[in-house]
Amino acid sequence: MNISENNYSNPRKTLWMLALFCIAAFFLFLGSALFNTRGEPREAIVAVSMLDNGDWILPVNNGMEIAFKPPLLHWCIAAASTLTGAVTEYTSRLPSALSLCLMTLCLFAFFAKRSGGRAALLTALITLTNFEVHRAGFACRVDMLLAALMVLALLALYRWWERGLRGVPWAAAACLAGAALTKGPVGALLPCACAGLFYLLRGVKLWSAVWRLTLVALAALLPLAAWYGAAYMQPHGGERFLQLIYEENVLRLTGKMTYESHINPWWYNVQTVLAGMLPYTLLLLIAPFVIKRGKRAGEPQQSTSAWQKVKAYYKKMPDVRLYAATCVAVIFVFYCIPASKRSTYLLPLYPFLSYFVAEGILWLAQKRAGAVRVFCGIVATLGIVLTLLYICILAGLVPESIVDHGRHADLNVAFFRALQRPAWWQMAFIAVPLMAGLLYFFRKRLPRLQFGFALWSALLPAALFFALDGAYQPLVLNAKSDKRVAEHIALLAPEGTIYSYRADVLLANRMHPFTVNFYLHDRIIPIDCAPQAPAQGWLLTGNEEIEEFKKEYPEYAPTLVYDSRHRSCDDKKFLKLYRFQLRDGYEQPAHHNARQGLHRKHAANSPRHLCK
User: Fold this and answer.
1) I need a labelling partner for 539 at 20 to 30 A (CA). Which of 23, 97, 199, 235 fits?
2) Which H helix or E strand runs over 181?
3) 279: cis peptide before it, omega within 30°?
4) C-alpha distance from residue 522 to each of 31, 49, 451, 583, 607 (Å)
5) pLDDT of residue 435
6) How many other C-beta atoms can be found within 10 angstroms of the C-beta atom of residue 187?
7) Quick one: angle between helices 89-115 and 319-334, nearest 10?
8) d(CA 36, CA 483)
9) Please, which residues have CB within 8 angstroms of residue 81's CB and are 6 or more apart in sequence?
10) Cα–Cα distance between 29 and 458 in angstroms, integer?
C-alpha cells in the first residue's frame, strides 16, 4: 500500500481505500468466532423467533421472554438471514459491522471537508482500531447500531446548523428514528441535546434551537411510538409490556429497577474510556515526557482566571472542533447520571474522541515526533513479540503446565490447546503483526512506505487486530463456546422440548442457557414455564443443581444422561443433561401455575417473563 502526501488531497481515492480496508478488517472474520457470551445469542434468538413464528412485533423467545429492546437490530438480522436461509453468527453480526463501516466512511467524508484529509483519514482509522469500537463492530448487540445511527444523526445536525437551520433535516430525523427503534427514546433525545448545546454556544437563540430540535425529536419518535402501540396490542403485550418499557427507559435511568443491572460509580466511565481507547491511551503516558512546557516568547505576563481562559479558548475554537468536544462532554456526562453503567453505552462519543486523538497525533508528529515514534515502536514490538511467542507455543517450547492451575484451569488448558491447532489459512493473519512491525523498523529502506509516523500509529494497531480477529480470538473463543454441548444434546434429543432449571435465579432477571438454546434453535423452556407440566422429558441443568431440582420437584426421578464437563460460557456452570419421568405413586401435575417454588417467586417480579 502506498499512501503519499498527495493522496490526502484526493478524498474520493482515500475513501475507496478506506472502504476496502473496512471490508478486509471486518467482513472476512464476522463468522469466525462462535457465540461465546450470553449477550449475542440472546439477541440473535429474537430474530430466530421472528422468522419461525412470523411475529415481527413482539416475539417470544427462550421459552418465556419478550424482547425488552425495540426491534430494529432484530429486523436487520432477520432480513440478512433470509438470504442465507438461517440465522448464523455471520448474519447476526452483520448489522453491527455494516453500521460501523458506514459510520466510519461518513466520518471521513465529514471531517475531510472541514478539517482536511490527514485528520479525517486518521480519525477514521483510529475509530476502527480502538478497542471498544472495534469489539462492538464484531458483536451481535444493539450498541454498535445505536452508536452509528446517533453519530450519523449528529453529523447531519451539524450540517443543518451550517445551513442556518433552514429546511427539514430529513437525514438527521431518519437516523434519530432508527436510533430510537434500536434502544428507545434516548437514541433520539441525546443527539438532540448535544446539537442543542452546540447551537447555543454558537449564538443560536434558545427558543429557536428548542422548538426546531423538539419538532425533529418528535418526528423521530413517531416510528417508535407506532411500534409501542403495535406491541401493546399483542396478546402477550398489554400492561406487562408497558411495565417493561417503563422499567427499561425510566427506572434504569433513575436507578430504581427491580433488579441490579451493571451498577457502577461515576468514575467507572473514566476508566472504561481509557481502556476503550487502547492502544492510543498509551500516548497519554508517553507524551508528557517529550513535551516541554514553558512560557512562549512574547506571552503576556498578567495572569487570567481559568474561566476566562476557557471562554477565550472556546470562542477561538473551530466550529467542528467545538462540536466534537460538545458531543463528547454531553454524552459522557449523561451516562454518568444513571446508576446502570456499561462501557458500550459510551460508544457514540468514541468517533469524536478519535478526532481529538487524531489531531493530537498530527501535532505530535510535526512538533514532538519522538512521542509518536515511541508509540509506534511499542506497538510494532508488541506485534513482533506476540508472533514469536505464538511460534514458540506451536513449536512446543511453552509447557502446558503454566496454565493448568488456578480457579479456571480447565478452561485455560482448553484455550492453550486450541491455540496449538490453527488452520493453515489462519497462519497468514498471525503473520500480519510480524510483517507490519518489520516493515516499520525497516521503513527507511522502502521508499514506498514513507507516509509518516501519524499513519503508522493507526496501521500498526490495525495489524494487531487482523491477527486477533482472524486467528487468536476464534481459536480461543471457540473453545469457550457451548456449541459443542448443543450439538451433542441434539444427537441425544433430536426433536421436542428440552427443559431447563436454574436454582440461583436472580431477582427478576432469570438466567437461561442462552448459547445452547440458540444452537438448539430455541427448543429450551424453563420447566416451571411449560404450558403443561410434563410427565417425562429432558432436563438441562448446571453443576449440582439437580439436588435443588429434586427438592422442588419431588415427583420427578432424573437420570444423568450426559455430563458435558464443559463450563458454560453463559454462567460458568458445568452443563449436564438428564432424562426425567414421574416417580411411582405420583400423578402428573395439572399445571405449573399452581407451583409457588423458587423460580416462580422470582419470575413473577419481571415484566419481560410470560410465565407467572
Assistant:
1) 235
2) helix 170-183
3) yes
4) 20, 8, 52, 28, 20
5) 95
6) 29
7) 140
8) 9
9) 47, 51, 87, 88, 91, 92
10) 20
Specify the pLDDT at position 449: 46
Q: Give the closest residue to 433 by CA, choosing from 391, 398, 399.
A: 391
- Look up residue 469 and give its DSSP letter: I
The residues, ordered by sequence, that sit 6+ positions from 247 with a Cβ below 8 Å of its Cβ are: 257, 258, 607
Identify whether the C-beta of residue 432 lies closer than 8 Å to the C-beta of residue 384.
Answer: no
Q: What is the 3-state secondary structure (H, E, C) of 224-244?
A: HHHHHHHHHCCCCCHHHHHHH
DSSP codes joined into one string, 37-83 = SSHHHHHHHHHHHHHHH---SS-EETTTEE--S-SHHHHHHHHHHHH
Length of the chain: 612
Report pLDDT for 213: 97
pLDDT digits (tens, 9 = 90+) for 263-294: 778 889 999 999 999 999 998 888 777 666 54
Percentage of residues in the chain having pLDDT higher than 90:
63
Q: What CA–CA distance (Å, rounded) separates 443 from 445?
A: 5
Average pLDDT on 141-152 reads 97
400-423 pLDDT per residue, tens: 888 877 777 888 888 888 999 998
* DSSP conformation letters of 493-535: S-SS-EEE--SSPBTTB----HHHHHHTTS-EEEGGG-SS--S
Report how far residue 228's alpha carbon sits from residue 58's, in angstroms, rounded to the nearest whole number.
10
Q: Assess contact for 539 and 500: CB atoms under 8 A.
A: yes
Least confident span in 254-263, 433-442, 462-471: 254-263
Which of the four pLDDT bands, split at 50, 70 and 90, describes residue 496? very high
Identify the pLDDT of residue 64: 80
| % of the chain beyond a pLDDT of 70 | 87
Query: In the block, which residue shows the cell 445551513?
Result: 163
3-class secondary-structure state, position 605: coil
Alpha-helix residue ranges (DSSP H) falling in 233-349 = 238-246, 252-254, 268-276, 282-290, 306-316, 319-334
Contact status, residue 51 vs residue 77, Cβ threshold 8 Å: no
DSSP helix/strand/coil, 561 = strand
The secondary element (H helix, E strand) that includes residue 215 is helix 206-232
What would the grid cell of residue 444 be? 527507511
- Residue 10: per-residue pLDDT: 77
State yes or no: pLDDT of 509 exceeds 70.
no
Report the C-alpha gap between 524 and 496 in whole angstroms.
9
Radius of gyration of the chain (CA): 27
C-alpha 417/C-alpha 403 separation (Å) is: 10
Q: What's at 359, amino acid-wise? A: E
Q: Which one-letter DSSP state was computed for residue 340?
A: B
Cα angle 160-166-170, degrees, rounded to a multiple of 5: 55
pTM score over 0.85: yes
Q: Are 185 and 221 in contact (CB under 8 A)?
A: yes
Q: What is the mean pLDDT of residues 59-70?
A: 83
> Between 432-441 and 369-394, two packed helices, what is the crossing angle to 10 degrees?
140
Which residue type, as a one-letter code, is found at position 385? V
Q: Quick check: 222 pLDDT over 80? A: yes
Q: What is the pLDDT of residues 585-601, one digit of tens each?
A: 777 665 554 444 444 44
DSSP 8-class letter at 593: G
